[in-house]
Amino acid sequence: MITEKGFCAKLKTFLIFAGPTTFVFLSVVIIPFLFGIYLSLTNWDGIASAYRFIGLQNYLTVFRDQLFWKSFFLTLKYVFSTVVLVNVIAFVLAYLLTRGVKGENFLRAGFFVPNLIGGIVLGLIWHFVFSRVLVFIGKSLNLSLFSYSWLANPQKALWALVIVSVWQYSGYMMLIHIAGLVNIPKELFEAAIIDGASAGQRIRRIILPLMVPSFVVTLFLTLQRSFMVYDVNLALTDGGPFRSTELISMHVYKKAFLAQEYGIGQAQAFFLFIIVAAITLAQVYFTKKWEVEM
Amino acid sequence: MQFTVKEKKGGSILRSSRHLLLYLVLLIYLFPFYLVVINAFKDRRSIILNPLGIGGAVKLTNFVEAFTKMNYWQGFWNSLVITALSVLIIAFFSSMTAYYFLRYKGKLNKILFFMMVASMLIPFQSIMIPLVRIYGSTLKLLDNKWILIYMYLGFGSSLSVFVYHGFMKSISVELEEAALVDGCTQIQTFFKIVFPLLRPTTITLVVLNVLWIWNDFLLPSLVLISKANRTLPLSTFYFHGTYTSDYGLLMAGLLLTILPVIAFFILMQKHVISGMMQGAIK
User: Fold this and answer.
1) Which ipTM was obtained for this model?
2) CATH topology of domain B74-242
3) What is the pTM of this model?
4) Which region holds residue A118: left if phi is over 0, alpha if psi is between -120 and 50, else beta?
5) Which residues of B touch A248 (CB under 8 A)?
């Protein structure tokens, strides 16, 4: 460690090295976050310059709001399906792509491509796929599954959203799993094969336990991203039909910026923060417990 | 020996079915892009008749029209300026901050570092309303590229400081002490000795941040209001809203939007793939 003498010298180094970042970070993240908690306790409507403190009333309104809960449970359903499917597919792809396949790098890059492109563009591409191409296939081949657009059907639209998200994220999570799989020492497999362990046993007894650190990361990333999804939701379904796909981020956005109920929107947003923080922290805590010492 | 032979025999059937499966899945993954490319060259009628095939009337004017109607250059230029400057500024300031937090272990530094790490749990949605309120109605700073870049530094610094901090732990102090003894200032020591050593981390962070900022939609949609300031995702989205049923035109527009990222990926493929892997492990 480097030691410093006077207070002025100390302050100067702080300002040079950490000053700009600290200032910007506080003014963009921390102050708005704290101010947001305050706003959620007021009746601000976005226009009036005068607003007053109304305590927890916004939160009570939120808890009684059926549309909010509908959106919340819809989000849970979406998050659960997406997180499970993304991780299963990503792991299987990563497993197959670390066994010496021809064109491994090409395949890895190919699966990763969707993740390069922003949610808006992905959503618009799939909007075309679901509303035009799949309907065309369904009608030509007489497949009732696709003969009407999934995006117009309240039962199927959410699954369309799940499919696009799985497609978007599985390549990225696959890369993280590959990084984990490559780090497992080869001797372990050799020893296991000599001992007569089957492929299934090798996966269950060696790979999965040693892959826990990768799963900590991929679960964290997929949980966080799927809770906060907005772009794909907007471009693919815009919450429709009949609010059947209005996930929580979009709900908050509409509450605040379209319905102009900023205080209530902010209360919902803060509630979202509590849920996301609690779930991701719990996930990291519990999955870390599964980690084995090498 | 019999044992290994058995392994191999079963292996070859397994291996070819594995190949088949993987390439089949890859085809499914890339199928939407195929659709965009082929339909970008068609007119509306042939898309409605058959969106899958290559036949039909070729309509190259789709690209010209999409290019002008979505104000492509403007969007591209805005995205480029915002992404490039934000990414450079984030790398510059975050590395300095991480270095400072690691080498000077004061109480305040520990609190700030903890706040940055903890802030990664905050969803953007919990900040956006007060953010718009503070920078919009109070400070009247919205609709401005520079304020967006400023915000990207704020939102991006926590992850970057965290990743730099983790990597710097492995760099020994002796080199720096030698430089200080030789009369370098701390700034010189940092930029001449430490920063070059951080290259792999810098590349990782540049990749992560480029993909994030180039593709970001929600923050720019709140900050940038006038048409002239729109980034590429914004102009694509509004373009799509205006020409909802002219599919050929829309696909040409989407293809134009995708091309720069694909070019970036092809040029930097190794860095992108390893960057995405490294970024997550740290």
Assistant:
1) 0.88
2) MetI-like fold (1.10.3720)
3) 0.89
4) beta
5) 125
